[in-house]
Amino acid sequence: MLLFTHVCKSITQDEYDKKAYELKQKQYELNEKQKQLIEADETFSVILFKLMDLASRAYELFKFSKVEQKRQLISFVLSNLKLKGKILEFELKKPFNVLINLGNCQNRSNWLGREDSNQVN
After folding, report:
1. DSSP structural state of residue 111
2. Residues 6 or more apart in contact with residue 100 via CB below 8 angstroms
3. How high is the pLDDT of residue 77?
4. pTM over 0.70
5. pLDDT attached to residue 50
6. How is 78-109 classified by DSSP, letter by letter?
7. Distances (CA, A) of 52 to 25, 38, 56, 95
């Protein structure tokens, strides 16, 4: 059987002050990082809301816009536009490509989790 002994070592006031200062600086750094993350999260939420609003009104915005505004909307959403005969080929820019992919999921039943969750009878 092994016995462990605990050795207490005292530190000087200077060592204590130095360690307390280091810990306080680390606390300030962590608080600043937390503040930045909260601000980034709030900014992301605002941008996401505006993006969803734009996406939901895109047809009306496009339909009633002037030619220059239509070009801006197209360049905002699409890239690599090519006309092959009567077929327009394009790529959706981020994040629109993700939104389209979410809407085109073939098997949405895997979103439900348990058999009885989120189902309306």
Report:
1. G
2. 92
3. 84
4. no
5. 87
6. EEEEEEETTEEEEEEPTTHHHHHHHHT-S-GG
7. 40, 21, 6, 10
CB 25 within 8 A of CB 18: no
SS3 state of residue 112: coil
Contacts of 79 (CB under 8 A, 6+ apart): 90, 91, 92, 93
What is the pLDDT at residue 19?
Answer: 95
Tokens read off for 10:
């005292």
Please name the amino acid found at residue 110: N
Place of tokens 């605002």: 46
Question: Mean pLDDT, consecutive 10-residue segments, the chain of 121 residues?
Answer: 65 94 97 96 89 84 90 87 91 80 54 51 49
- Please state the domain extents for the chain: 17-56, 71-105
